[in-house]
Design a protein that fits this description.
Elements: H1 2-16, E1 31-32, H2 34-39, E2 51-55, E3 58-61, H3 66-76, H4 85-112, H5 119-132, H6 139-145, H7 150-173
Length: 180
């Protein structure tokens, strides 16, 4: 399954996206916008409409990743010493942008392969998750603690199920390794 996932991501990057090496060492499956490069270590300079990357010719404004950044910060920042908080903001920006791009790429591939999730599959997955929570911790409380809503949780779960199905489908297409 992991081999199929790696092959899928590599193929998507090679087929659709140009790599930007301007921001930092290491490949990126998108172009980083010039405004984001100049403000990268000063996130307060970014406005909601600042284009931080371009994916398939579509600009990605800073506002598209601020929600994920806030969720990451709420989880990570309380555990970080104050002296390191500034550098962590930049790392959170990188992780949030990379996560956003990855989700867009995988959703695009799931669309391309017409991968769907039925309402019954979604309901079963949500119910299964809720059943695994401690008895004194209902799903709505869990979601509130994680700065989410049932609607967002259902969207995220549907995405996860689609990606899981995509990987399973692609894993069946990968030839098993040989001794050669």
């Amino acid at each position: 399954l992991m081999l199929a996932a790696a092959a899928l991501l590599s193929a998507m990057v090679a087929r659709h996206y140009r790599t930007s090496r301007e921001m930092r060492p290491g490949p990126r499956p998108y172009q980083v916008a010039e405004d984001a490069l100049s403000a990268h270590f000063n996130l307060s300079a970014l406005t909601p409409t600042t284009v931080v990357a371009v994916l398939r010719g579509t600009p990605i404004p800073y506002s598209h990743i601020t929600g994920e950044m806030a969720n990451m910060a709420a989880t990570v920042m309380p555990q970080i010493p104050e002296a390191m908080a500034g550098s962590m903001q930049s790392n959170i920006f990188d992780f949030a942008l990379d996560g956003y791009i990855t989700r867009k790429l995988l959703a695009s591939e799931a669309d391309r392969y017409a991968v769907t999730v039925s309402s019954q599959e979604l309901a079963l997955a949500v119910d299964d998750f809720a059943a695994r929570l401690p008895p004194d911790r209902p799903l709505d409380q869990f979601l509130e603690e994680h700065h989410s809503s049932l609607e967002q949780f259902r969207r995220d779960t549907e995405y996860d199920l689609r990606v899981e199905k995509l990987f399973e489908m692609l894993a069946r297409e990968v030839a098993p390794p040989t001794d050669e």
